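Agenda item 2: iron/sulfur cluster complex prediction
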Amino acid sequence: MKINQKEITQVGHGSPMIINWELVSHCQFKCSYCYYDPFESNTDYESLQKIIQKKISNIDQPFVINLIGGEPTLHPNFSKIVSFLQDLEKCTEIRIVTNLAKPIHFWDSISSTKIVLTASYHPEYDNGKFFEKINQLYEKFDSDVPFLVPNSLIHLPRMKKTLENLLNIDSPRSPTINIIRPHYKSGYSVSFEQYPEEIELFIKEATTIISKNENQEKIKVYSKNKEIEMAKSTFFDLNMHYLKGWKCNINAFIIHYNGYVSSACRNDKKHIITAKFKSTPLICPYQACECDDFWNFEKYRNANE
Ligand code: SF4
Ligand code: SF4
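Presented output:
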């Protein structure tokens, strides 16, 4: 069933709270398109970890936690943090957002039924090991691959090879793949790279193949009398993520590497000791909603709904 973009009144059908915990501020890579720009900080990560764990133990609603960075696996107590979250009843899912640079044996000591491995593919640092590692890990963890496409033809052959390898995994547990265009953000506006034709063609072909996979991530959109579940890649291609002015029931927080907490999409910051993990709806100030994790929070075209 098709839906006309202008008829859409609601996007997303609700999501548990999301907490993005920046475990560290540094990273082994220095990707040209990195929006974070990793750096070494003076934070005492082990002391801060104890305070954060105590605080999130008191959250009284179910939540999903994204372990991010920098590169989260560089935290000195990474496996202990995962064990703590495994035992925390309200934490329903632990998403590890990693560049997969750690050697494969690092993952032997990590075990949890709640893990989703979000293993980002960075072609600028592809030494041939990325696919080898994901190929050994996808049976152990639910996994997805954000596949970054930088603006350089030098990387195109290895991007094609890696994508082909990923698509050839023949298993019900094969990782979900999302093709990602790096973006620039200034103030409330977002712009995307202009690519040469060969890279545009690669993205188009990759997206077409991936959109036929059954395990692709989906999102619900609604008109007054229709409800459609569509692939996130289709939602993006149709520019449905341009949601400025919509009422958004976002319920997401970032715990920064230095112990400050901010609400997603708001310009506020409080120290973890005084922060409250409570949110209220807001009118979207951004041109584009570029974090697909947030698409499932309900958004309404009419601010009164
Ligand atoms: S791996 Fe991620 S955090 Fe590290 S430099 Fe690349 S984009 Fe930035
Ligand atoms: S950018 Fe933030 S406020 Fe805007 S729609 Fe997305 S999640 Fe909601």
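Discussion summary: The mean pLDDT is 92.
Owner for follow-up: CH.
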